[in-house]
Amino acid sequence: MFNDAARQQAFESFSQDVCGNAFGRRCEFLETAAAEEKIADDEQGPAIAKNVQRMRHRTGRTPRRKASFRDLISTGHRHNGTVPHSSLAIYALALWFGLVFFLGAQGAFVTNPGSPPLPIFLGLAIPLSLFLAAYFGSSPFRDFILGADLRFVAAMQAWRWAGGQFFWLYAWSVLPGLFAFPAGFGDMAIGFSAPWIVLGLARNPLFAASRRFVIWNILGIVDFVVAVSMGVLSSGLFHGINGLNGNVTTSAMNRLPLVIIPAFAVPLFTMLHLTALFQARRLARSGKSISLR
């Protein structure tokens, strides 16, 4: 009986030390399993750390940076309280397009004959200024731009093959040749060459740091600079040039539907070129591969 009493007292003491209630054995079992799992995790720790390090080298960003950006764009009960970056971009583009269309329908971009096309200039300059200000002033936005899929960015430029429409507008005396030919040939050159750029990126992500890729994007921006310059010269502001164009001006670009081109399409495609150049510069400096998700 003494042994039984001693065993009973030891058992009660042991149960109280482990959990302090009637479920002592279960708690002991759970704590033992947790300890074994911790040991297994410790043994796998170096491998997990190495994998995380590899992911950081691939993407050039840390999980903490991603989480902070998701927190900044949180808008409530949507996919765990976050909105995908691509969805935000689509919403912003839709709002921008709607604003341009509304202003164009109201004639906000129309100027008097012989007046500088200031509304068109503002429609082009304001979005680009906001884009550059956000890139250099906002880390989350900069991370979003540097994480964009360059294959998609380059593929979007293929739409510029539609610049051939300027030739038809010239044939119908809607636009002057001084503007239509440089703008049309430049857009078509970028648009038709875009698939080869996408193919180069698909074969080797390091193609984004090549001179060919950088020059292609610079030429795409130069095409817009030339087109806008020729558009201003052909706007009727300079009477001598207006006579050479047969009194045909670029006034049609101030009205719908053509106003969508200088006030929306041109700044949008310029942003895509800048996105590609920003990523190319980062890749050239770091020597790492770009994530092409």
Uncertain stretches of 5 or more adjacent residues: 1-7, 10-52, 55-82, 289-293
Shape: globular
C-alpha-based Rg, rounded: 31 Å
The N- to C-terminal Cα distance equals 74 Å
Number of alpha- plus pi-helical segments: 12
* Mean of residue pLDDT values: 79
Q: What percentage of the residues does DSSP assign to strands (E)?
A: under 5%
Helix and strand content put the structural class at: mainly alpha
Main pleated sheet? none
Helix content: over 70%
Tell me the total number of β-strands. Answer: 0
Elements, N to C (H/E): HHHHHHHHHHHH
Structure notes:
The chain is an all-alpha fold. It has a domain at 83-286. 71% of the residues lie in helices and 0% in strands. The protein has twelve helices and no strands. It has helices at 2-18, 24-59, 63-72, 85-105, 118-137, 139-146, 150-156, 165-171, 177-203, 211-233, 239-244, 260-286. α1 (2-18) packs parallel to α2 (24-59), α7 (150-156) packs antiparallel against α9 and α8 packs antiparallel against α9. The longest helix has 36 residues, at 24-59. The radius of gyration is 31 Å and the shape is globular. The termini are far apart.
